[in-house]
Amino acid sequence: MRDIFDAIQRSAIRIKDAIDVKDIGYSQQENSSGETQLELDIKCDLIIQEEFSKVSSVHTIASEEKEKEMLLNKDGKYFVAYDPLDGSSLIDVNLSVGSIYGIYDGAFGAENMVASCYVVHGPRVEMVFAENKTKLYLLQAGEFEFVKEIRLNEKGKLMAPGGTQQNWASYHKGMIDNFFQEGYRLRYSGGMVPDLHQILLKGGGLFSYPATSDKPEGKLRRLFEVFPFAFIYEKSGGQAIDGKNNLMSLGHSHIHDTAVCFFGSNYEVDRVKEVYSENE
Ligand code: F6P
Ligand code: MN
Asked: What does pTM read for this prediction?
């Protein structure tokens, strides 16, 4: 696991340099989720692939930017799924982006997840790594320094409601409106890494990406986005559900499968469970 952690750190430093160029280059290609790939997305994908290729414990990788999984070392034991540059369409407006990693033992699947990690590229570069506990690191002079352990409070103050509102179910809209009436403050940049990072570090709240009429299975990818953050939120004392079930209890049938998802502190996620059990 130490080798994987080191490979993620080396990738983060190379990605930081890759982002800091004038032309991020819109390519003509689309990834498996139908999003336009930037040359930068492809470059970051290759950086991570290259760094994991040096790690003998990595068996197979799967990336948001690759159609299929890729075998790296048949004697390795870890399967790593990653989103190389989540929120890359926000780079031209200079908002934060990030990389997300799910580390699975023996095969992809939530039940096999043993660690997860994300890196935030904002004004500073930070990394959050969860195994038994969730730990925050800050990039300082080329090295990631440990900052602190992260624990969520029972109840937070922030609300990050994803998905096109026009396409929300009415009970979902009612639930979000009620949170705002209770005093929650809107915090939504459109990048799941900084949005979930903010809720985690400010003590709690709720990030939601509900089923919508245009995306009934949600938008966010199980292996690269949903399971890694679900693991981190659970290890930090929060919860992660699809409305009813824990996200970590869900299966997947394809590496690019999506899931409806809610991540937050206990008070807010319990409310989601109440509302969703009354309405679905
Ligand atoms: O990877 C998908 C993503 O860019 C996430 O980072 C983000 O949370 C989500 O899409 C935003 O989607 P929407 O704009 O539909 O709320
Ligand atoms: Mn993404």
From this structure: 0.96
